[in-house]
Amino acid sequence: MLKKRELQDCQALYELMVHPDVFPFVRHKANSYEEFLFITKQTIEAEERGELISRTILDEWGNPIGTINLFDIEDGAGFLGTWLGKPYHGKGYNQIAKDAFFHELFYERSINTIFMRIRKVNVRSTKAAEKLPYVTLANETRKQLWEAINQGEDIYNLYEISKDNYTLYAMRQQKLDDEQQRKEA
Fold this sequence. Notes:
By secondary structure, the protein is α+β, with helices and mostly antiparallel strands. It is 42% helix and 24% strand. It has one domain (2-184): Gcn5-related N-acetyltransferase (GNAT) (Aminopeptidase, 3-Layer(aba) Sandwich), CATH 3.40.630.30.
């Protein structure tokens, strides 16, 4: 479902990224395939320096369909950035990718907090974030950070995912899955 970023995936990812429903919401925009290659190379190098964590999202056949990233890592916290190609919207890939990525961040890395800044105009992402039981709106509880991300033209809501909230969610999900398997057996 996830793999480390590789240059060989750039052509497929670039074609998906430039779709008008996707492009405005990509953090590192590229206006050409060559620029996308360069940005991807920089991303791989930044991960090697510990500045970010970036993964390619794959479909069930191993085809690249988007990326999921943790940017601006500092003191065990960072900002989530994810995008999927338009043909993969609404098919459950985003949640599967987030679960795999959060598991890596919280249990294999030293990340304790994941922030999401979502433009107020991005209704699709806002609704998706607010459906997740482990996400909390942090505009008031992290007011300084919320004010810092709203210095430009775009206005964002700030959401927070703590390791503790995600762990409780994962434990509940596992219990539900176990109960379902017992019923089916």
